[in-house]
Amino acid sequence: MNRQAQAVVMLLFGGAVLKAGVTDIHLRYVKEELRPFLIGAGLLLVVAAAMTLWYDLRAPRPETGDDHDHGHGHDHGHHEPRVGWLLILPVLGLLLVAPPALGSYAAGQAGTVLSADTSASDYPPLPPGDPAPVTLLDYASRAVFDDGKSLAGRNLQLTGFVTPGADGQPMLARMVLSCCAADGRPIKVGLSGDTPISVPADTWVRLVGVYTDRTGTDPINQATVPYLEVRAWEQITAPKQQYE
Amino acid sequence: MTDRHGVGADAIDWAPANPPPPPAPEAGPPRRERRFGSVETLAVLLVLLVVFRNPLADLISGARLQTWTTVFVSVLVQAAPFLVFGVALSAVIAVYVPRSFWARALPRHPALAVPAAGLAGVALPGCECGSVPIAGSLIRRGVTPAAALAFLLSAPAINPIVLTATAVAFPNNPEMVLGRGVASLIVAVVMGWLWLRLGRADWIRLPHRPDLDDQSRARAFWSACRHDIMHAGGFLVLGAAAAATINVVVPEAWLQTLAADPVLSVLALAVLAVLLSICSEADAFVAASLSQFSLTSRLVFLVVGPMVDLKLISLQTGVFGSAFAVRFAPVTFVAAVVAGTGIGWVLL
Q1: Adjacent-strand bridge partners of A162
Q2: Closest by alpha carbon to B129, among B234, B201, B202, B222?
Q3: Measured between alpha carbons, how far is A40 from B260 in angstroms, rounded to an integer?
Q4: Cβ contacts (< 8 Å) between B211 and chain A: which residues?
Q5: Where are the alpha helices (DSSP H) in chain B?
Q6: Same-domain status, A162 and A80
Q7: pLDDT per residue over B228-258, tens digit each?
Q8: Same domain, A225 and A119
Q9: What is the three-class DSSP state of A160?
Q10: A70, closest residue in chain B (CA to CA)
């Protein structure tokens, strides 16, 4: 791979990272906080590509004897990293394919993320509103570790995607990221009452329901899965930020 | 390769000191008029990719393959800034920081330089992708390899961002933070000393890079950036592909059956840390979620992960050569498991 080809690959990789950082695409893969770093890294890659082209096209390197050989050959040929070709793959992945955020398949692979370690000692009152919007993680923590005390008597609104549980019944799930999708893990809430059975997995829904003390167990990691008594539900388009 | 006070670096096998076997026959007689070079190959490849975009997208529509692609892309998106900034910093070290600086900054005696370099890891806020090229640059600039390796191991594990993330992930177990810092530092220093005793300089094959001695500093800087991005980036792609495969292929249910046994659980999480190749800034959250496992086994997960994983082995092979990686990675793995278990037994 000569320097010009390397410059093109760097330009494409930088452009792909930059595009992911500038648009919302990065939200499918990483936390929002990474955004400025993505933009910075993309810009640096583009500049590095431009400088490589600049030096390569402007002047042959004086110290090499074989001076009209623009890196095709022998002075560096052995060390020009051939493995760099692989950088085409993420370019392809980001610019042409741009795979969706993790969904039902990944949720079925891993146990629900709820663990004693994440429990706070005290739960503040729910946000105002009827129904009150709560995240799945918040609902599950309050339901399991606080016995639903702070949930009682309120209409609650939860948003997530539908995923089949071990018993085939639909559950509500959402992926939780701590850094990137490689560490994405699901938070699952079982559904009782008016459950959205008719929609396929990975459909995004907004549920309104109330706390129920029914719980189940995630067969994958034996963690407790709380249930929600569903009163109403509607199908929605996937939110911009699909992770919790 | 002129005067240098760094110990050992002179003895390093600068790969092409004895010229490599003549380049593959394809290079043939130098024909420098237009031939079908890599720019043309790249152009054809890109055109084909764009033309066959839709069939390609269909090909990966299966749920499992799609998850693989998402994880693969996300590992790279996550690592790209750390890699790029790490490479830029290592190019600064390679081009702008004079050799004499390192001779003054580190204790002259290598046995003392190792713990000093290990502690210096606190100052590099980043994850492991960035530290590999930096360690390569340090060796190139005359830092004794043992000290550079101690830095390589400690920097991703004990920097403030990683320790803070660990504290956030284990709010009820602050001793995990202490355990992680202490165990990681011990492994880094022990590995450095071990390298002083047993390491052979010719295991490390840093590519000869005359371009770094370019009269124009700016040209040398950008040349170093280009080379390291292409090189380390390519190996990062390999590592990301391996990590995504493991992520999709190994169902978590298998792990849970191992959690009950105290010995097996430590080994299982140590191996998992290697296979998953999670960024050191995130691994604490994953460890926290593996709640059926003992705290000690999760500490081992946190100590092994930033030091040995698929992505790192791939990067180290690229930067230091395979002779280095096949020796260094397994020994580090054993040291990390032992230190993690020992500290866990004492502290947790």
Answers
A1: A172
A2: B234
A3: 45
A4: 61, 76
A5: 38-51, 53-59, 63-95, 99-105, 110-120, 128-140, 145-158, 160-169, 175-198, 217-249, 252-258, 262-276, 283-289, 295-304, 310-320, 322-347
A6: no
A7: 888 888 888 887 887 788 778 877 777 777 8
A8: yes
A9: strand
A10: B32
**Segment (H or E) for A19:** helix A3-22
pLDDT at A121: 61
pLDDT at position B218 over 80: yes
- Give the pLDDT band of residue B133 (cuts 50, 70, 90): confident
Residue B194's region, left for phi above 0, alpha for psi from -120 to 50, else beta, is alpha
Same domain assignment for residues A200 and A130: yes
The helix (run of H) or strand (run of E) holding residue A58 is: helix A35-58
Judge: A78–B23 Cβ closer than 8 Å, yes or no: yes
Which chain B residues have a beta carbon less than 8 Å from that of A220? Answer: 251-253, 256
- Confirm or reject contact between A185 and chain B (CB < 8 A): yes
Looking at the structure, tell me whether residues A219 and A201 fall in a common domain: yes
Residues of B in contact with A76 (CB under 8 A): 211
Q: pLDDT tens, A200-210?
A: 889 999 999 99
Residue B168, Cβ density class (10 Å: 0-12 exposed, 13-18 middle, ≥19 buried): middle
Using DSSP's 3-state secondary structure scheme, residue A197 falls into: coil
- Residue A17 in domain: yes
Report d(CA A241, CA A101) in Å as an integer: 9
Do A7 and A69 sit in the same domain of this protein?
A: yes
Are the Cβ atoms of B244 and A182 closer than 8 angstroms? yes
pLDDT value at residue A178: 77
The pLDDT value given to residue A71: 39
Answering whether pTM is above 0.90, one says no
Give yes or no for A56 touching B (CB within 8 A).
no
Q: Which residues contact B30 (CB under 8 A, 6 or more apart)?
A: A66, A69, A73, A74
Asked if residue A11 belongs to a domain, the reply is: yes
Cα A115 off chain centre by: 20
Tokens of A91: 């370019």
Listed in sequence order, the residues at least 6 apart from B211 whose beta carbon sits closer than 8 Å to its beta carbon are: A61, A76, B219, B220, B223, B224, B227
A93 in the same domain as A124: no
A81 and A113 share a domain?
no
Structural domain of A225: 105-235
Q: Which residues contact A97 (CB under 8 A, 6 or more apart)?
A: B56, B57, B60, B69, B73
Q: Looking at the structure, do residues A49 and A118 belong to the same domain, yes or no?
A: no
The dihedral region occupied by A226, where left means phi > 0, alpha psi between -120 and 50, and beta the remainder, is: beta
Contact predicate B218/A70, CB 8 Å: no
Element (H, E) at A51: helix A35-58
Do the Cβ atoms of A83 and B231 come closer than 8 Å?
yes
Q: Which of A71, A99, A127 is the last residue of a domain?
A: A99
How many domains is chain A built from? 2
Which string of DSSP letters, residue by residue, matches A59-117? ---TT-SSTT--SSSTTTTTTS-GGGGGGHHHHIIIIII-PPPP-HHHHHHS-----GG
End-of-domain residue from the set A64, A99, A134: A99
CATH number of the domain at A111, please.
Answer: 2.40.50
Q: Where are the domains of chain B?
A: 63-347
Tens-place pLDDT, residues B284-309: 877 876 777 889 999 999 999 999 98
Q: For residue range A126-170, what is the model confidence (pLDDT) as tens digits?
A: 888 888 999 999 899 889 888 888 888 899 999 999 999 888 889
B289 close to B302: Cβ distance less than 8 angstroms: no
